[in-house]
Amino acid sequence: MPSKFEVTAGKAAGPTTGGTVTQATNKSTAVTLNTESGQITMNNAALADAAEVTFQVNNDRVAATDVVVVNHGSAGTAGAYWLVVSAIAAGSFKVTVGNLSGGSLSQAIVLNFVLLKGASS
Question: Are 57 and 39 within 8 A, CB to CB?
Fold first, then answer.
C-alpha cells in the first residue's frame, strides 16, 4: 500500500490529498469533501455573540476511530471564534463553531482540517 504521507527535509509531514468546499446556504449547512485534509469556507451568515452552530462534514475517508483536527485557518477576525470537532462517525464528522467576539459576526471564515487514522485495537 502506498504511503499517504510525504516527508521531505524541512517540510511538514501530512496527508497528500486535500481539497476545498464552501457552505451554500448558512452556517449549519452540511458540506461534502472526500479528502484526508482540506479547507472549509463557512457561509457568511450572522453568528450572534456567544452563539454556536454545528454542521456536518460528509467524508468517505473518515472512520469512527479516526481523529479529526480542525482550526480557524484564515478570513474573519482572529481569536473571535472557538471551534471543536463535536462528533466523529464512519463517513462524517461534525464541527461546532462559537462566537467569542462580544458582537454579532457575519464572516465566511476558512477552517483547515486533517484526518489522522486511528484504531481501537
Answer: no
